[in-house]
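Feature request, filed as a ticket because there's no other form

It would be nice if the structure record came with a short human-readable summary line next to the tokens. Right now we just get the raw output. Example of a typical job, pasted below so the devs can see what we mean:
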Amino acid sequence: MELSLITDEVSQDPEEAIDLALGHGLRKVAVRSVWGTNVALLDRPAVDRLAKLFARRGIGVSSVMSPLFKCHVPGAADSGLVDPHFVGLPPVFDQHVAVAGRLGQIADALSTPLVRIFTFLDPSPAGRPCQVGASELATMREAVTDWPSGVEPVIENEFVCKVKTLPELAAFGRLSGWRVVADPCNGLLAGDSDGLEHMTAELLAATADVHVKDRSGARYVPVGDGELRWQQIFERLRQLGYGGTVTLESHLRGDLDGVEASLRALTRLVAS
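Raw output as currently delivered:
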């Protein structure tokens, strides 16, 4: 397993995020926004500047953490949702399609094979059969058709999207043939468990990244201080031979002490 952290959970200045990552022995970071700009909206000079910075500092990029398709399905009314984890790109289908092609180019320029994407906003309860229809999947496929060779979309389960839980993620992985990003905490928020029993050999064979955060009641807390059974989850990951990326997604932006406490806990979990 290889550890990564999301740059903007440390700072909008990627240098500060790199400093923290290297200080804890990490060699990879994930990019969601930098310099106050959503990764999907970075222009080519900014992407080139970022790539040169990572190369100079000797750190790689584990994934482009895009918001692609965390938006309404085509033709749906805008709900006015403002996602605090993204900047500058509203959940409007046409705007997401407009930036889809450039995400592949950005990933290629940053030398990462992975672009995290979602499965459209959906307020319905979890636990139903996969709700991504054939036309929606076709739309998603078309949006990434022209991505450079070696760059792939990876689907994350998200409690406000159509694929919410780890069982739904496994089903969508089978349907689409795409690899996935497993987020146990998102499954918990969707009303399922913390995902321990869902960490199957089948799911992990399709998993490119595992996102780690913790929750206590209505708030996010440092990893290890909440409800998720991370010690047992990591024991299961090792037992099943998971060798992909593990990304700290603490949702503690602005709480650097909490981010660092989470990073220390995650480092111990991976090493134990």
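Something like this underneath would help us a lot:
Residues 2-193 form a domain with the TIM Barrel fold (CATH 3.20.20.150).
The chain has a mean pLDDT of 93.
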